[in-house]
Amino acid sequence: MSDTLRPARLGAGRWLASLAATGVAFGALDALWLGVLAKEKYASSFGSLMADPVNVPAAAAFYGIYTVGLTHFATAPGVASGSVARAAGQGAALGLVAYAAYDLTSLAVIEGFPADVVPLDLAWGAVASGVAAAVATAVLRRRSDR
Description:
- By secondary structure, this protein is mostly helical.
- Helices cover 78% and strands 0% of the residues.
């Protein structure tokens, strides 16, 4: 099996550290995006489709599941191989796929789903996931170098 397809081999402690670092990095990036940078765009595009207040259990489920997936498919392989670039690339690919699944399915089946948000959201999924996996990998590499 090629190195790119071989699953990451991390002990439980390193995997949990990868999970925590990925969750913190992705959560911080997404909070900045949703709370500041894209807040007005999403509010104007989604209008009455936006939940007020946010459905916290659904949001928590997404962040928990997505952080596990991002760790498994991007951060852990980056940590195991010692490659921040690998983590970034795999994170960006996962982000694009995951956000495309949501946005394009929603566009296909929800009447009034704002098409103008789709390219922005796909780009954000790729960037945020790639950066979060890269940051988490870099932090863990620095920590293990000490």
